Amino acid sequence: MSPNVPEEASVLLENIENPSALADFLAANLNLDTAEKQKLLEELDATKRLEKISVALANQLEVLELSRKIQGRVKESIDKSQREYFLQEELKAIQSELGKGDLRTEELKQIAKNIKKAKMPEKVEQEAMRELDRLNKIPPASPEYSVIRTYLDWVCELPWSIQT
């Protein structure tokens, strides 16, 4: 049944005894497009109509279950992200109270110093700074964070100013 059908409809549904009337009621209240409803209502045999309605109900039930699963995953993902954000903010507050400051900011400043100190070509340095900016925007728990961090460390360790 359509989510828009009032609960009183279930009472009415329980009191319908005529198969043809039951098929008509269900067809009218199913969440189908007009063409599909028309096909159902054009079927004169009540048994065949009820079989088609049964298939339509099974399809709608499958769609609703899939939708519920997707909504559950999305909610779980959002809850996890919110929890991570809250814990990161809490960690920042604790570090601030302890006088340690933001360790991540210090880490990013050190990487910027390493980039400047590496004496790499200008285009490479610009790319490294762009990656550092991306790193600043990504949560440390993200797998991408560690990939970018490793890349920047590797780029800074290359012997840019040494020629052989």
From TrEMBL:
Keywords: ATP-binding, Hydrolase, Nucleotide-binding, Protease, Serine protease. Residues 1-61 form the Lon N-terminal domain. One of its GO terms (molecular function) is serine-type endopeptidase activity. PROSITE patterns: LON_N. One of its GO terms (biological process) is proteolysis. The keyword Protein biosynthesis does not apply. The keyword Transcription does not apply. It holds the Pfam family LON_substr_bdg. Signal peptide: none annotated. This is Lon N-terminal domain-containing protein.
